[in-house]
Amino acid sequence: MNRFQCLSVAVLAGVCFAATTTPKAEAQVAVGVSIGVAPDCPYGYYDYAPYPCAPYGYYGPEWFTDGIFIGAGPWFHGRHDFHGHVDNRFDVHRGYRGPLPNRGERPTATQRPGRIANFRGNEMRDGRGHVGGDDRH
């Protein structure tokens, strides 16, 4: 009986030790996910993830204030009711395969932001990835 008691105590101690060292899975919920800084794109960036730089001609002049892009996506800092024209023929989701600027590039002298000659927007967007709106804005 003495051996049985020693063995029982040893097994019980091993089980207790294993239970205290086993990592426990805990549910984690993130409420305020940080996106980071807005991409530094010469003509603005698409308003949907992963927010690559949009080409010259995608955004109309109302998306720029003094040549500075007012934003899109989670960094949008225009009016809540803002809707601006875009030319969705320059959207990669709609088949555009032309040149795209890289982050950090500067606009060329002939392609200044907000000064798009003969811009022909064919869609209204709100900067948060939503299509729609009207021409009052």
Question: Any overview of this molecule?
Answer:
Helix content is 15%, strand content 7%. With 137 residues, it is low in regular secondary structure. The strands form two sheets. The chain has a two-stranded antiparallel sheet with strand order 1-2. Strand 1 and strand 2 form a beta hairpin. It is elongated and about 95 Å long. About 4% of the residues have low confidence.
Topology:
Layout: H1 2-21, E1 64-65, E2 68-69, E3 84-86, E4 123-125
Antiparallel strand pairs: 1-2, 3-4
Strand content: 5-15%
Order of strands side by side in the largest beta sheet? 1-2
Low-confidence stretches: 28-33
Element pattern in H and E: HEEEE
Q: From the alpha-carbon coordinates, what is the Rg to the nearest angstrom?
A: 28 Å
Structural category:
little secondary structure
The main β sheet shows up as: 2 strands, antiparallel
Q: How many individual helices?
A: 1
Percent helix, as a range, is 10-25%
Distance between the termini: 90 Å
Mean pLDDT: 80
The number of E-state strands comes to 4
Taken from the alpha-carbon principal axes, the silhouette is elongated
Descriptive terms for the model:
137 residues, little secondary structure, two-stranded antiparallel ribbon, 1 helix, 4 strands, single chain
